[in-house]
Every structure is written in C-alpha cells, then in structure tokens.
Amino acid sequence: ITITGTPLMLNESLWSVGVSLIQACYASRGLAAVAAANINGTAFNLFSLVMMSMGNAVAILVGQQLGANDIPEAKATVRKLIVFAVGLNLVMGGLLVAASPLIPLIYNTEPAVRQLATQMLVISGVFLPFSSYVNCAYFTIRSGGRTFITFLFDCVYTWVVCLPAALFLCHYTTWPLPWIIVAVQVLDNVLKGVIAGGMLKSGLWAKNVVNS
Q: Which pTM value belongs to this model?
C-alpha cells in the first residue's frame, strides 16, 4: 500500500501546486486577468463535472475487471468509456462555448474583464474533450497500480513542460493572454494526449494489483 500509494499522494499534492503556479503566471498579466480567470474557473468547474465523473467511472469499472484478472475485458471497457467520455464532453464543451458570452454578464465587472473571460471560456470549452481524454487515460493507468507512471505523466509533466512554458510566455513575450493559454493547453492536453494514447496502446497499465 505504501509503495503504491506514496507516488499518488505526492502527485495529487505537487500537481495542485503546479497548476496554482501556472494560474499565478496568468495573473501576472494584470487584475483583469485575475478577475477573468476566476470567472472562467468557476464556470469550468461546473461544466467539467461530467469529465471528472467519467474519470472516476473508468477507475472503478476498469479496476474491478483488472482485479478479476479479466485483462482483455478491461482493455475493451477502457476503449468504450473513453469514446463515451470524449463524446459527452464534446457536448459539454459546445455548451460552454455557446454560453461563453452570457456567463460573464452575471458578474458586475468591466467590459474588458468580460471580454477576456469570454475568450477564456471559449478556450476551455474547445479543449474540454481533450482534457477528458487525458483525464480518462490518467485514471486508466492508475487503476492498474502504475502510480509512479501517473506521477511522471501528471505531476512531473506539469512541472517540467507546462509550468516553464507558462512562465516563459507570460514574462518574456508580449503574446496576448488568450494565446498563451492556448499554447499551454496544447502542451497540457493535446501533446499529453498523444503520449497517453501511446501508453494506453502499449497495455503497460493493464496489471492486476491484487496478484502483484
């Protein structure tokens, strides 16, 4: 339990710190960025509930099949659940994009903040299906007890790739903030999704933790 659980505990803690530091990089672009990020974060937490729920579903269903030593069925279940999750989050992402001009109107803030928040919401909605794929891949790999791999895949990747990119783009370029967010999202979800696809295809994750 200690060997398997420690990387997971460190991952959850250090990943959260890494994401907070990325948000701090965005906040360095001014008070409008801080306010817009808060609006985006609140709305995204609501629209990403399906994504998080599907990740938990993957962990439970696939973990059960791996524990029963039914490796082929576990692999088939992963494929079905990932397709289902990405499809659901295509819908949720589309709804978020559609609602992006309306959500900032709830807040009593300046037009510049509303405009920036709308742009952030559109970006979040567009990348939501990609985030869902990566999230399901994370829980799949974790279900097989490969917690050190998930530590590298999630936490180390955030600290080594995403955080330096956000830091550099925010402090050493004149790029508009929305373009910086797009670049970081591509690294965090699209590029990581490609890596996740290779890991899932390899079958390295399909391990019965009970018999190990």
A: 0.92
